[in-house]
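Consider the tokenized backbone below.
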């Protein structure tokens, strides 16, 4: 009976295209790992920045399909694919907040812990910066988001009246990542000059996870582009991920 290979789940960044993940897919396949790649639609990522649970705006949110259904649909497909693979362990590798929101939703939907989580250029808790992140999207993707949300988009991230609510969603996001009871190993890959993800926030989260008892490693660059650390520092990137994978011991593997 053949032994199934471990799986890595790749969750791409906002505006990521399938071709952009190929170098990462090839990296993991060279290490004899199966790869499942997913990219949340820009509208699903935008939904995750909104405080749908907040009573004061709940009725408006219900008019927009009532919350994070779009990303939950993606997570359901991911779980189906993972179960169908019959693998005995998996690593979750997320890029930017676009991928980290997927991890947040995935974490809530499953009782099957990974052997490790890689945070690549994430997370960041200044959710208004999504307006900057949309520069990674195609014009068609931007128009689709604006067509669906219209003025709601601008009100949520550019109106002072909404600041407390968006801040509340950011606090919830931080809580979900910082206080996760799963103390699985984590690798944080980030740079000090990333305009989208302030490195102080990533470093603070990494320290908080260490204090909770998780095994945490970090690779920090002084200069490296957002979601392009593998391109800018290929050798160091591979060394960091390889060392992390070796530290994910079989005894920590989840049985799916």
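A designed sequence for it:
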């Amino acid at each position: 009976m053949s032994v199934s290979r471990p799986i890595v789940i790749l969750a791409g960044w906002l505006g990521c295209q399938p071709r952009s993940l190929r170098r990462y897919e090839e990296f993991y396949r060279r290490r004899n790992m199966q790869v499942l790649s997913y990219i949340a639609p820009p509208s699903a990522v935008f939904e995750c920045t909104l405080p749908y649970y907040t009573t004061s705006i709940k009725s408006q949110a219900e008019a927009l399909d009532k919350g994070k259904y779009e990303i939950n649909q993606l997570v359901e497909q991911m779980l189906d694919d993972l179960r169908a693979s019959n693998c005995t362990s998996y690593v979750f590798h997320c890029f930017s907040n676009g991928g980290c929101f997927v991890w947040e939703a995935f974490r809530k939907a499953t009782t099957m812990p990974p052997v490790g989580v890689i945070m690549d250029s994430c997370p960041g808790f200044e959710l208004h910066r999504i307006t900057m992140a949309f520069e990674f999207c195609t014009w068609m993707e931007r128009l689709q988001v604006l067509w669906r949300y219209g003025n709601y988009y601008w009100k949520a991230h550019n109106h002072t009246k909404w600041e407390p609510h968006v801040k509340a969603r950011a606090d919830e996001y931080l809580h979900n990542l910082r206080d996760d009871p799963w103390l699985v190993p984590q690798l944080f890959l980030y740079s000090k000059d990333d305009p989208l993800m302030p490195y102080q926030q990533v470093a603070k989260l990494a320290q908080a996870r260490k204090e909770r008892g998780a095994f945490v490693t970090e690779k920090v660059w002084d200069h490296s582009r957002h979601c392009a650390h593998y391109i800018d520092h290929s050798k160091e990137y591979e060394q960091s991920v390889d060392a992390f994978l070796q530290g994910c011991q079989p005894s920590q593997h989840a049985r799916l």
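Residues 69-85 form the longest helix (17 residues).
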